[in-house]
Design brief:
alpha/beta, OB fold (Dihydrolipoamide Acetyltransferase, E2P), Rossmann fold, seven-stranded parallel β-sheet, globular, binds adenosine-5'-diphosphate, binds magnesium ion
Amino acid sequence: MVALGTPLKHALGDKTAKALAAGLDLHTVEDLLRHYPRRYAQRGELTDLSHLPLDEQVTVVAKVSAVQSRPMRQRRGTLLEVTVTDGHGTLKLTFFNQAWRQRDLQVGRHGLFAGKVGVFNGVRQLTHPDYQIIEDRPTVDVKAFADQLIPVYPASAAMASWSIAQSVRIILDTLDPLIEPLPDELRERRGLLGLSESFRRIHRPADRDDVRRAQDRLRFDEAFGLQVILAQRRAWAAAQPATPRVAAPGGLLASFDARLPFTLTAGQQDVAATLTADLARPHPMHRLLQGEVGSGKTVVALRAMLAVVDAGGQAALLAPTEVLAQQHHRSVTAMLGPLAERGLLGGAEGGTRVALLTGSQPAAVRRRMLLDIASGEAGIVIGTHALIQDTVDFFDLGLVVVDEQHRFGVEQRDALRSKSETPPHLLVMTATPIPRTVAMTVFGDLDVSTLTELPLGRTPITTHVVPSGEKPHFLERAWERVREEVAAGHQAYVVCPRIGATDGDPDGAGESVAEDEDEGDGGRRPAVAVLEVADLLADGPMSGLRLAVLHGRLAPDEKDDVMRRFAAGDIDVLVATTIIEVGVDVANATAMVVLDADRFGVSQLHQLRGRIGRGSAPGLCLLVTEAPEGTPSRERLDAVAATLDGFELSRVDLAQRREGDVLGASQSGRRSSLKLLAVIRDEDLIVDARSEAERLVADDPDLNRHLGLRSSLAALVDPDRAGYLEKA
Ligand code: ADP
Ligand code: MG
């Protein structure tokens, strides 16, 4: 008898186990049982042969339509040529010196045929084909025989689909009774099959209904397992002690609110109230704040930071790049005005100080900042990951705000949190819209708040795709539009995928290189580069305008200088890499031209576009591409042009990826445990599973009364896999 954990080599013998391990990465009985059929073939139902992918291992159900055996021309021996058909198209199978196979492969017979799809003399064929004839005579019940489904598995060259089916059959016949991980009450209430039953039906279904019910159950397991783990994490985090931070009335926060030149939107007020409540609890806040670029997250976060300062603590704001840290420092200082000038002439009574800490500061400045941080003089500390170095000592760190978490690892967050005796509260901000289900899975251990409305007075951005390949004069028109914006007193960005000249890697200062750099792919020209484009523009379409470049190879103070001058309106056109992707906030910039736009991802383009239209003047975004109409690249650009809704776009983005990628499993190189669950498609299921999981964990946090579930989850969260949940 075998159990789920039994190695396949004990269950099936060395040879089969090796074949399953080599091509399919299956090692245990459970791995094999969870290697579900890709689809099911029905007798008499043939595979459409017209869409088979070239050079891939396929399994098709087809009918033998012709058989011919003849002596070979060049060599001794016979050649057996078998043609199979789906009723329309055909596929050829060739066997050398295996004329005896004619006994199996008779015209009119159905079979499963497997091999790699190739083309020989213009005719499609399966190379090294392998096959299994489907019995054409019922042994028992005629009806049952005709209906029976044949599982078709993801197969490998070493292991054909029917060999996998055979192995699964052996396992199912020798499987010990399984411990049911789902609580009976839950299973019955939701009408889910038992686990053993589900394995049996998904691998050896009698009919389509079997398949559906088995998939329902196994898909629920995936959603539920993940949600129980996340619920446990939330419960654990929520049980940690933290210092409640309640703003003293009439303090900094109140003065700040009085200074604000606008009123908070209803959404901002909601989130603000949530944060106030979170911060008042004796357990750490653990919250994700998402909202479109420009939706006003930073203001809300700053208010939370001020509340903590009012309560006698410090707040740190972590930015992913120096440019952003500097910019945050500038804008926070400006928003606070005299409130940030404690101890200075004109500084407000009861004000604080805002320290900036970056890796490139002169030693003396840095020392002064460190002192302010350690003494508590600086209530607000803004910085890059330099902030989490050992040498940085906080007086009393109460809140950590992480801006654009995508570039910050969990380890870094934890390192910063460890700078306080009790864990500080944590607020993670992201402008990359995350569909609800992804928030519930990938970010499932954070509570989520969303800012959906943009502050009033914003004029929407218009986006156009400029097909420079098909219509070169469109590009000229694009440059004219930029000149018009500048003539009207506005500013513009020109974004390029590369820096140029001796383009090495960008320096990691926040530039994500456009999706493909095309190295070694002789087919495409290299993407356009900042330095070259800047020269071309200066001597051509932009001559006479004040141009500057911004990219990761500039020294930090040069970058800061360029950003300052751009913010001050002393630069008309900024030619830049994606270094401007996040957070750069210059309201007077109204136009953006993205060159080789097809080299960027959907969400990246959306982020870039968020740099314009931040003021009251309408924004114009031009996506220049040579990608021909109808290609996937062009469709992505059309999608970006068609909507400003980041949530919609993140769905487009996700729809193009495999689910495993969504959960980061592909990064760790490990198979995803989510086989049936589709994060986008199964939204309802995930929502249900989450509430079931919350209920269960609230009732039995350590799963002491659900041992079956506990052990099945333990297998899920081996050290490797714990990482994937955290690699948000
Ligand atoms: P985010 O961080 O979400 O990108 P910010 O907080 O930086 O957004 O806000 C973008 C701009 O909008 C800033 O200049 C900010 O001062 C302004 N802003 C924020 N909230 C409001 C509001 N309620 N009304 C008007 N302007 C606002
Ligand atoms: Mg911001």
